[in-house]
Amino acid sequence: xxxxxxxxxxxxxxxxxxxxxxxxxxxxxxxxxxxxxxxxxxxxxxxxxxxxxxxxxxxxxxxxxxxxxxxxxxxxxxxxxxxxxxxxxxxxxxxxxxxxxxx
Length: 103
Prior knowledge:
By secondary structure, the chain is an alpha+beta fold. The chain is built from two helices and four strands; from the N terminus they run βαββαβ.
């Protein structure tokens, strides 16, 4: 989406679990197309967040994992129409977004 009636809203989360939950809410509850939702590490390095959570946590049979680097925050962005901005901000806030920006 790239017309004058759309905006890109980006939220930053501490964990991959929170980012995944945000994506699920955007698609299933707000009705944003999955192709209009994007996820990436907030910094230069690949990261699964700053805290261990959800699928990143070791199971009872594991002593630790080396595949889930904890080196930065996760960004979720969505290209949305103006009528979804309020719901999107509320969803990101309810799910613990650290920062939310729109452009």
